[in-house]
Write a structure and sequence with these properties.
The complex is a heterotrimer of chains A (267), B (331) and C (250).
Chain A (H helix, E strand, L loop, with lengths): L19 E10 L2 E11 L4 E5 L6 H9 L6 E6 L2 E2 L3 H6 L2 E4 L11 H11 L5 H14 L15 H14 L4 E5 L7 H18 L2 E5 L3 H7 L2 E6 L2 E6 L1 H4 L5 H7 L16
Helix pairs in contact in A: 3-4, 3-5, 4-5, 6-7
Chain B lengths: L2 H28 L8 E7 L10 E4 L2 E11 L5 E7 L10 E6 L6 E5 L14 E4 L5 H27 L7 H11 L1 H20 L2 H8 L1 H36 L3 H7 L2 H23 L2 H8 L2 H20 L4 H12 L1
Parallel strand pairs in B: 1-7, 2-6, 5-7
Antiparallel strand pairs in B: 1-4, 2-3, 3-4, 5-6
Chain C lengths: L1 H22 L8 H11 L4 H23 L8 H39 L2 H7 L4 H38 L7 H11 L2 H27 L6 H29 L1
């Protein structure tokens, strides 16, 4: 594998970033086809941004990668292991940053971050404290350590969620809509954090988002998902001049007051 | 609230639960905490019947203790351990028995007063016991009796009515009668014929019955037979004389038949003849009876009457009636 | 048909959850802080309401028994009636019903909101099984706390009956007589039966409420639906189990 070893900030043992490959993945919820025969792969250490309108199946695809959903057909391989098996999570450290953060409301920020190392006994309490504080430092959250998640603002919640993922020393970082519901400055900040973490720790990163700025700004490659199908896959440069009209429409929508889109929607 | 405080409360709470459980256990099973002290007596019985732990011990109807334990002692004995109020003394000649307080199975141990002069029983000693009739035994006896009665009744009913597979007595009779009703009718008709003939004096028997002349003739015949008998006697006497002569060897015949055997034969013949005639005159034997007795006549008359009744009854025809008539008149 | 499938699915997933949680039993010692916390929630904070309710249940039993038993001159047996009813039936059942209402609903609500707000998913991605850290400590806690609640319910009920028997004019039985009859007609096995019942009820309630909470799907609205479902299923389960456990312990 042509990747440099991860310089993980929390571990002296160096775990390499992992690749992800998705092979003919299909998913049905009842009779509804959410994903249709999707295949692509993400190289180790790459930032892959998956874009698409709401309801296109991006988050479902992400859940398949992390093993929260079982594919109807096809498979997802993470570092060569089937992601749907529980066993895979034992071998590959994957961290998913949920859209709403999914912080444990009953625990303080500190305990949220400390939960993983405590449960997996990666260090003694002092070692855990060191790891947690380092992660908080990276995301400038030192002062929030003893707060409860309900006291945090949206942007802070996302940062805590990222910090919590970071403590897991992941080989694969997954972000679900990391910039949604945030003001443009905060969105830019989060994008910078994602890029920084990838640059500094060489972690494979998959971001699900419909934030064009983020995708064009930090992605190595961008995939566009529409109606459960992968309609475009390419570098940000290629996306600046999209060939597919649907992709152009999605990425660069023109606000046309004379001919509004909602009038064209099927009733 | 900090963690230590919470842990302490949970611990305290749990200990409280343990303590309460222990107290309940002690109170309900051993009685060491709350129950009165007392001394122990052992009462051995063949069977403790319905007696159970906690039942009362009464002396002359007054509660003086309770059954602390019931246990088996050896293979042929059960023991009740009684805890007796220490204020009560039980005489050594007092007897204990298991008494039933009600039909629903509440029992107690009753102890009689004994004689006041006898020594008091000590802790751990054994009290005399006696067996009282057990309601269960009585009940089961009654039950058995009932069962037997029922069995007997059932077999009677079965015999009379049949048990569904084999027909009963009445069914059998009924069947015979109804199957043979034609034959019976014929029989009856014949009987009627016979009796009609008898009445009209037809046939031998009819004449015998209806004809006074015949009767006279019979009498005459008998008289003749009697005469014949007398003659026979005379003949025998004569024969005797001849035999005497023969015996004495007189005449050729005497010589010819002078033989013991022949003589005896003749003697026997004569004796038989006499016996016959005697019997006849005394009215013995069939013929004698016919001659001397009116029973036959009366029997014949009864038979006729019965036959009449039967025939009358048959007019109603139904097999059951026929059965009834036949049964009534023939048996 | 869908209903039946849903019921069977519920039973199946509950049993699966039980086995999954049981498989993490060795980790219980490391989770002792969570265990103590759940003990506190399940046992200690439920005590006041259990005590109040049991007191009045015992009182009402004594009143009703006094009313009906004096008709045939058996009111001196009130002690045994209240004692046996509380220990064998009402103590454990009442404690279980309160547990379902107070603890079961809370468990279902907490786990349902964790599920809806993806905290459960987060745990899964962190390779921390929910059965291990959410279910196991609760099950262990209820096993330890439920007998305590039940014995307290029994005793408080007995005393409630005793007090009412003394101070109600139509009954007027001295506590000595009340408890003497109670002792005469009861053995510890009666109480033990009740404690076993309570244990079974409590365990079933917590397990079912955990399962219903963890199986919540959809948005925040479903949290409320899950709580209702958890309490209803718990109540049904208590009465159904009551029959079978009583039968089994006869």
């Amino acid at each position: 594998m042509a990747c440099s070893p991860t310089r993980n900030p929390f571990s002296h043992t160096e775990s390499p970033a992992v690749g992800v490959s998705i092979e003919h993945l299909s998913k049905k919820f009842g009779s509804m086809q959410v994903l249709k025969d999707i295949s692509f792969s993400v190289d180790p250490g790459e930032i892959f941004v998956l874009m698409g309108p709401s309801g296109s199946g991006k988050s479902v695809l992400l859940k398949h990668i992390v093993g929260l959903e079982q594919p109807t057909a096809g498979r997802v391989l993470v570092d060569g292991r089937d992601a749907s098996l529980e066993d895979t999570r034992e071998h590959v450290h994957m961290a998913l940053v949920f859209q709403a953060g999914a912080l444990f409301n009953s625990l303080s920020v500190y305990d949220n971050l400390a939960l993983y190392p405590r449960e997996h006994q990666v260090a003694d309490e002092a070692g855990i404290r060191e790891k947690v504080m380092r992660a908080l430092q990276i995301l400038s959250l030192e002062n929030a350590a003893q707060k409860s998640p309900s006291e945090l603002s949206g942007g802070m919640k996302k940062r805590v969620a990222i910090a919590r993922a970071l403590v897991m020393e992941p080989q694969l970082m997954l972000y679900d809509e990391p910039t949604s519901e945030l003001d443009p400055v905060m969105s830019a900040t989060i994008s910078e954090i994602i890029a920084t973490l990838k640059d500094e720790y060489h972690v494979t990163t998959i971001v699900v988002s419909h934030d064009r700025e983020l995708a064009l700004g930090i992605a190595d490659r961008v995939g566009i998902l529409m109606g459960g199908e992968l309609v475009s896959l390419g570098t940000p440069a290629e996306l600046k001049t999209p060939k597919d009209p649907r992709v152009a429409e999605f990425l660069y929508p023109k606000i046309d007051l004379k001919n509004p889109r909602f009038k064209k929607l099927e009733t | 609230m900090n963690n230590a405080q919470q842990t302490a409360r949970v611990g305290l709470f749990f200990l409280l639960g343990l303590a309460l459980t222990w107290v309940t256990f002690e109170t309900l099973s051993d009685g060491k905490v709350f129950k009165d002290r007392g001394y122990i007596l052992i009462a051995g019985f063949e069977s403790l019947k319905e007696l159970k732990q906690g039942d009362e011990v009464r002396m002359a109807g007054v509660k003086i203790g309770s059954v602390e334990q019931t246990r088996l002692a050896g293979s042929r004995r059960a023991e009740a351990v009684l805890r007796i109020d220490p204020k009560v003394e039980i005489r050594s000649d007092a007897t204990a028995s298991i008494v039933m307080a009600g039909l629903i199975g509440t029992n107690y141990i009753g102890i009689d007063l004994g004689t006041p002069t006898a020594a008091a029983l000590k802790d751990g000693s054994e009290i005399r016991t006696k067996v009282t009739p057990d309601i269960n035994a009585i009940m089961s006896e009654l039950g058995n009796l009932g069962q037997k009665l029922e069995g007997a009744l059932n077999s009677i009913t079965g015999a009379v009515n049949g048990d569904g597979k084999t027909p009963g007595l009445f069914q059998k009779i009924d069947k015979v009668v109804s199957d043979n009703s034609e034959k019976l009718t014929v029989t009856m008709t014949n009987l009627q014929d016979v009796t009609a003939k008898l009445n009209k004096g037809e046939g031998t028997l009819g004449r015998l019955i209806n004809d006074p002349k015949l009767h006279d003739e019979l009498v005459a015949t008998v008289t003749e037979i009697k005469t014949a008998a007398t003659d026979a006697r005379t003949f025998v006497t004569n024969a005797q004389a001849i035999i005497d002569q023969v015996k004495s060897g007189k005449g050729a015949l005497g010589a010819l038949v002078f033989d013991e055997k022949t003589g005896t034969d003749i003697k026997n013949t004569v004796a038989n003849l006499r016996a016959v005639s005697d019997k006849i005159s005394r009215g013995e034997g069939t013929f004698g009876k016919l001659l001397n007795d009116d029973t036959i006549y009366r029997d014949a008359q009864t038979l006729m009457k019965k036959a009449n009744t039967a025939i009358d009854g048959l007019g109603d025809s139904g097999p059951i009636t026929a059965l009834g008539v036949v049964a009534n008149s023939l048996f | 048909m869908n209903q039946i499938t849903a019921i069977l699915e519920g039973i199946g997933s509950t049993i699966q959850l039980l086995f999954r949680a049981a498989s993490y039993t060795p980790s219980l010692w490391r989770q002792r802080a969570r265990f103590i916390d759940q003990c506190y929630q399940i046992g200690y904070t439920t005590l006041p309401i259990v005590a109040i309710l049991s007191f009045f249940i015992g009182s009402v039993l004594a009143l009703q028994a006094g009313y009906s038993m004096s008709n045939f001159g058996a009111k001196q047996f009130i002690g045994s009636l209240v004692g046996l009813s509380m220990a064998r039936e009402l103590g454990p059942v009442m404690a279980a019903i309160l547990l379902a209402g107070r603890v079961g609903s809370a468990i279902a609500a907490e786990l349902a909101s964790m599920k809806v707000y993806q905290e459960v998913d987060a745990l899964v991605t962190m390779n921390i099984p929910p059965a291990k850290i959410l279910v196991l400590p609760r099950l262990a806690a209820v096993l330890v706390m439920m007998p305590v609640l039940a014995i307290i319910a029994d005793l408080v009920g007995w005393f409630g009956g005793a007090i009412i028997s003394k101070y109600t004019q139509s009954i007027a039985i001295e506590p000595e007589a009340y408890f003497s009859v109670l002792r005469r007609f009861m053995v510890f096995k009666d109480v033990l039966n009740g404690l076993i019942k309570a244990e079974v009820f409590g365990f079933a309630i917590v397990l079912v409420c955990c399962n219903i909470g963890l199986n919540t799907r959809g948005g925040p609205r479903e949290i409320g639906a899950s709580v209702t479902k958890a309490v209803v299923v718990s109540l049904i389960l208590i009465l159904v189990l009551d029959y079978f456990v009583t039968k089994a312990l006869m």
